[in-house]
């Protein structure tokens, strides 16, 4: 008879194993975490379940401050992202801000066309679809949709970085203490991160406006 474990039961049981193993390896681990956090990196990534940043970067709890959403897209009017950025940069004083896209991204694939995904997703992915339209000639030269989706993911990372550079807290931290921003692509099939080169793209239109 096949055994079946409820997914919620599975994660609760898994937490017990994690807590026990962590305590066995370092009895003070949770005590130290309870004292506060001092991450050096703000990671803005995709909500895709295959890209858990702490795991793929071989980091520990407390190392990375995280914001994730569909297709790691940063909108200038997104209060959620704006608040995460403000807290990480102005109060936690992170040294690096990373935007990480990935291969096989559902949002990037969906942005290759204009299928109706529902009001919310249509609105959310609109800037990514606009990127596809803007770079239509370049994308059409690529061999297949997999390659086109990866390129859209790269372009989306660069666009999100451009938007982030307009955030007041980021602009101040760049000028005052050398905060730097970086783009990454995670290859799900290889399990490896790739650093994107800086681009000379123009700044996004307008200032960050979370209201």
TrEMBL record:
Binds 1 zinc ion per subunit. GO terms for cellular component: cytoplasm. It comes from the Eukaryota. Keywords: Lyase, Metal-binding, Zinc. SMART domains: Pro_CA. GO terms for molecular function: carbonate dehydratase activity; zinc ion binding. Zn(2+) binds at residues 46, 48, 102, 105. GO terms for biological process: carbon utilization; cellular response to carbon dioxide; cellular response to oxidative stress. It catalyses: hydrogencarbonate + H(+) = CO2 + H2O. Its cofactor is Zn(2+). Its EC number is 4.2.1.1. PANTHER family: CARBONIC ANHYDRASE. Reversible hydration of carbon dioxide. Belongs to the beta-class carbonic anhydrase family. This is Carbonic anhydrase.
């Amino acid at each position: 008879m096949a055994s079946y474990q409820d997914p919620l039961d599975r994660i609760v049981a898994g937490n017990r194993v994690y807590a026990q193993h962590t305590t066995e390896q370092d009895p003070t681990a949770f005590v130290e975490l309870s004292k506060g956090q001092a991450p050096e990196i703000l990671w803005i990534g995709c909500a895709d379940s295959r890209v858990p940043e702490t795991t793929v970067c071989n980091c520990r709890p407390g190392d990375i401050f995280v914001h994730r959403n569909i297709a790691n897209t940063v909108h200038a009017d997104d209060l959620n992202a704006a608040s995460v950025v403000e807290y990480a940069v102005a109060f936690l004083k992170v040294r690096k801000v990373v935007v990480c896209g990935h291969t096989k991204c559902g949002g990037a694939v969906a942005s290759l066309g204009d299928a109706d995904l529902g009001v919310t997703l249509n609105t959310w992915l609109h800037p990514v679809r606009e990127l596809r339209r803007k770079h239509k000639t370049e994308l059409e030269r690529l061999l297949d949709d997999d390659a086109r989706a990866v390129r859209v993911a790269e372009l989306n990372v660069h666009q999100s970085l451009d938007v982030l550079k307009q955030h007041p807290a980021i602009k101040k931290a760049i000028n005052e203490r050398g905060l730097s921003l970086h783009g990454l692509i995670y290859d799900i099939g290889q399990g490896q991160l790739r650093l994107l080169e800086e681009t000379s793209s123009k700044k996004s239109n307008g200032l960050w406006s979370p209201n």
